[in-house]
Amino acid sequence: MFINWRLRELNLKIVYYGPALGGKTTNLQYIHSKTDPRIRSEMVSLKTRGDRTLYFDFLQLELGRVAGLKPRFNLYTVPGQTYYTSTRKLVLQGVDGIVFVADSQAHRLEENRESFWEMRRNLRELGYDPESMPLVLQCNKRDLPNILSVSTIHEHLGLNGVPCLESIAIRGVGVFETLKTIINLVVAKAQQQL
Amino acid sequence: MNQSVVLSEDIADQIHRVLSELRARTQAECVLLADISGQLVESLGSSEEIDPVLVAALAAGELAAIAELARQIGERRASGSLLHEGKNRSIYIASVSDTFVLVVIFSTASPVGLVRLFVRRAAELLHPLASQFEEAIRRSNATLGTDFGTALAGELDEAFGGM
Ligand SMILES: Nc1nc2c(ncn2[C@@H]2O[C@H](COP(=O)(O)OP(=O)(O)OP(=O)(O)O)[C@@H](O)[C@H]2O)c(=O)[nH]1
Ligand SMILES: [Mg+2]
Prior knowledge:
The complex is a heterodimer of chains A (194) and B (163). Helices cover 31% and strands 26% of the residues of chain A. Chain A starts with a strand and ends with a helix. Chain A has one domain (2-193): Rossmann fold, CATH 3.40.50. Chain A is an alpha/beta fold and 194 residues long. Chain B is α+β, with helices and mostly antiparallel strands. Chain B has a single domain, classed as Dynein light chain 2a, cytoplasmic (Beta-Lactamase). Chain B has four helices and five strands. Chain B has helices at 3-26, 52-72, 112-140, 148-160, and strands at 30-35, 40-44, 81-84, 89-96, 100-107. In chain B, β4 (89-96) and β5 (100-107) form a beta hairpin. In chain B, α1 (3-26) runs antiparallel to α3 (112-140). The model of chain B is unreliable at 1-6 (pLDDT under 50). At the A-B interface, β1, β2, β4, β5 and α2 of A face α1, β2, α2, α3 and α4 of B. The complex binds guanosine-5'-triphosphate (GTP) and magnesium ion (MG). The site of magnesium ion (MG) has 4 residues of chain A, from α1. Magnesium ion is lined by residues 24-25, 53, 77 of chain A.
C-alpha cells in the first residue's frame, strides 16, 4: 500500500490467487462488467489463445474521496496453471491482500491445497509473513454438483479464522462481497499498526 | 500533520520536478513513474489514448519478467531497461534502484539515444529518493485515521451496493 500525499491517493494491491480454472479471471470480468466505467480502468488480460491467463489480468477501481483520500484498488489475477509458477511470484510483488479462489469441486481439492502452499512459499520468499497477510478464502463454483463443504475446504487448507465466502463467479454471486471483505481486511490491518 | 506526511509530500514534489525535466528534454509524449509492484506514482502528459494506470501495471510486469529471464540465464543483475520501437510511438522502460519503474513514451521521430541519455540522468536524480520512498511506504500504513475504515466501508457499499 502506498499513499501519494501530493495527489491524496491511497493505492492498494489485491491479488486473486488459486488453482487453474478456479475462476479468478471470471471474478475480475464480473467486477469490470458491473462497475461504472467512470470508476474503473479498462481490464487488461495477458492470456493465451485459449483464454487462459498467461501473465496476469489487471483492473483498477477508484473510489471518490474517503476522509480526504482517494482509494485506488489495483486488482490482479495470477495464471493458475502449474507451469507458470515463477510468474505467480512476480505478480505477488507488493501485494497488500489476497483472495484465494478455491475450486469447490471434490476432485480439485488437492490442487487447491498445492496452490495454497505454493502461495505461502512465494510470500515467504518475497519477504512477507503469510500468517499476517490479509487473506480471504473464496469457495467458487457452488453451482456445480460434487462440491465439498466450505468447512472441509477451509480445514484442508489448514486455515483458522480466515473469512470464507461462497461464490458462483460466472453469475456474480459472492464476487463483490469477496472484494469488500478483502479491502476491509487490508485497511483494518493498516490501522492496527497505528 | 505528522512527519511522514510532510516527508512524502516532499518526495512527490521532487519526483514531479525530475519527470517534468525529463519530459521537456526528450519531448516525450508521456513520462510516468510507478513503483515496482506496478502502482502509478506520477504521470505527466497522458493523452486520450494512453491510460497511465495500465501502462504502469504492464511496464512493471515487463521489467519483472525480464529481470527473471536474466536470472534464468545466469545473469546476476539485469540491465533493467527495455525498449520497444514502434511505428509511430516507442516506449522505453527502465528500473530505478529496484524501487521505481520509469517509463517514457515518445514519438519515433525523437532519437532513441537522447531518450536513453536523459533517462539515465533522471534515474540518477531519482536514485536518492528511492530509499525515502520505501520508508514513506512503510509509514503510510500508520497514517490512516481511525475513522477511515468505517468511512471506506460505507463508500464501498455505495459503489458496489446492490450488485
Ligand atoms: N460452473 C461454474 N463455472 C465457473 C464459475 N466460475 C468460473 N467458471 C468457469 O471456469 C472456467 C475457468 O474460469 P477462469 O476465470 O478463466 O479461471 P482462472 O482461475 O482465471 O484460470 P487460469 O487463468 O488458468 O488460472 C471458465 O470456463 C469459467 O466460465 C462458477 O462459479 N461456476
Ligand atoms: Mg485466469
